[in-house]
Write a structure and sequence with these properties.
2 domains; 15 helices; Rossmann fold; about 475 residues; alpha/beta; seven-stranded parallel sheet; about 35% helix; binds nicotinamide-adenine-dinucleotide
């Protein structure tokens, strides 16, 4: 711990930091835990999907209060105040999928205003809208996009670890397609996901996903399914392996031979198997498949592959030689592309299952760029392009490809950043703290859920609504 770090973390330092406006960050609700307090549903005209989805999840809903003149009461100085919730709501779900006119946006203001100061700690605002790319008419498209700026502002104004997110629904999306997403967003699994918008479309034919149970897909959605995690020996990869195992998966943990000891410890602790493999070798995909067939039998298939292994070789472009360039592009992007190309072969023993899940890890550096990370930012933006392209290329099969883009996550990698810079990275998001490896893992597990087949070609940032590239 550096000298400045010890001062700032001492009791006196904490008080000084608080006076300087650096309030203690809120403790976030995590895990498969629903919010405390009622779930409010604002089912706006033309909606209906959210109500059906929450009913299918077995979640009771309450009516929200509306900020209308007739509902306001005067305070002691005679000023009209919005209606006040006695019991703090745990979540507000707004179904705005039928909203097409600018004038109707007022309905969102009416339901949002009363909750802004009353939402429970780690509460949720979840907005459902029709995908702007799929509605006709100038006004309707403009209105659909308006939801995005509104949601992002709500995320920035909420306090106490509460989050706001937006789901763009394509036509024909039903409760079965949205269930796993609403459960994820309501539960603590989405603790560090805020200010994000992503798309949901109807699941492809052949996606035989189990319907969602109460509070999300059954608590062990990966029971009996094989999940391969690269870079699993430590950090985020180890957290991913633990989270998928908690949810029932048979883990195949992959990492460099040099990390063999910690890899074995992770795999053994989860009753999984370890595969020592440098993912950049040309036949890495074939070796993963061969391992799966050897350990689990020749009929076994991989349910999900989580491409987590990644490296940084930071330096300013002015100093960037071909070696640092090539190693980062190869580990972070090209290896993933080659492995997927091998594993999607339906005839390959130990390859991907018919409706498998492919997930990659991008980074907020890939959105915003980052000084000294030209190679890394290029590789991570490449991961976003890769999953979108794979989603398109595999459109005829019920396989999905998605990615998460973590912001500042507390790991060995980020512990090496100088303290002041680290503290700035931590604080510059709406939740005023760094994320935990488990936050990345939970989001990946949601994307790989058998009931998440309607989420395809999406990149979800796990960054607490970081201002960088937001
Ligand atoms: N920590 C963060 O804040 C953060 C932010 C954004 C993205 N990420 C990404 O998340 C992922 C995990 O990050 P982390 O912080 O846990 O990193 P880490 O360095 O702690 O772990 C990475 C693991 O990948 C393994 N690995 C590296 N090259 C490999 C190869 N060629 N073959 C097999 N295994 C290999 C390493 O041995 C290590 O165990 C990476 O893709 C990283 O770029 C991290």
């Amino acid at each position: 711990m550096g000298a400045l770090e010890s001062i700032l973390t001492s009791p006196l330092g904490r008080r000084a930091a608080a006076r300087a406006g650096l309030a203690e960050p809120p403790v976030l609700r995590r895990g498969r835990v629903l919010p405390e307090g009622p779930v409010l549903l604002a089912d706006l005209p033309g909606g209906g999907v959210a109500r059906a989805t929450l009913a299918a999840l077995g979640l009771p809903v309450a009516e929200p209060l509306l900020d209308l003149p007739e509902n306001r009461a005067a305070d002691e100085r005679g000023r009209p105040q919005p209606p006040r919730y006695e019991l703090r709501p745990g979540a507000l779900v707004i179904d705005a999928t039928g909203i097409r006119e600018v004038a109707q946006l007022e309905l969102l203001r009416q339901v949002l205003r009363p909750v802004m100061k009353r939402l429970a700690d780690s509460g949720r605002v979840i907005l459902l809208a029709t995908d702007a790319a799929t509605v006709d008419g100038v006004e309707a498209r403009a209105v659909a996009q308006a939801m995005d700026g509104l949601m992002r502002t709500v995320g920035k104004e909420l306090r106490g670890g509460a989050t706001a997110n937006l789901l763009w629904l394509a036509g024909g999306v039903g409760a079965d397609d949205v269930g796993s997403t609403l459960a994820f967003l309501l539960e603590g699994r989405s603790a560090f996901v805020s200010g994000q918008a992503w798309r949901i479309r109807p699941r492809k034919p052949g996606d035989r996903a189990a319907p969602s149970g109460p509070a999300g897909a059954s608590a062990r959605p990966f029971e009996g399914r094989i999940v391969v995690v690269t870079g699993a020996a430590r950090g985020i990869g180890a957290a991913i392996a633990r989270t998928f195992r908690r949810d029932g998966a048979e883990i195949v943990a992959v990492d460099m031979p040099a990390a063999g000891e910690s890899l074995a410890a992770v795999a053994n602790g989860l009753r999984g198997s370890a595969l020592q493999l440098d993912i950049t070798v040309p036949d890495a995909g074939a070796r993963i498949a061969a391992h799966v067939a050897r350990v689990h039998g020749s009929d076994a298939k991989i349910w999900a592959i989580v491409h987590n292994a990644g490296i940084t070789r930071d330096t300013m472009l002015a100093n960037l030689d071909e070696r640092r360039w090539a190693s980062v592009l190869d580990v972070n992007l090209a290896a993933e592309m080659r492995i997927n190309a091998t594993l999607v072969d339906a005839a390959l023993a130990g390859g991907l299952a018919e409706n498998a899940r492919i997930v990659g890890i991008a980074s907020t550096s890939g959105w915003a760029g980052n000084k000294g990370q030209a190679n890394y930012a290029a590789s991570k933006a490449g991961v976003m392009g890769l999953v979108r392209a794979e989603a398109d290329a595999l459109a005829g099969r019920p396989i999905t490809a998605n990615a998460v883009a973590p912001g500042f996550i507390e790991t060995d990698m980020t512990a090496a950043i100088p303290f002041v810079q680290r503290e700035i990275f931590r604080r510059t998001n709406s939740l005023a703290q760094g994320g935990q490896p488990v936050d990345v893992a939970e989001t990946l597990a949601y994307l790989c859920d058998p009931a998440s087949g309607g989420v395809d070609g999406q990149v979800i940032r796990v960054c607490g609504q970081n201002i960088i590239g937001a």
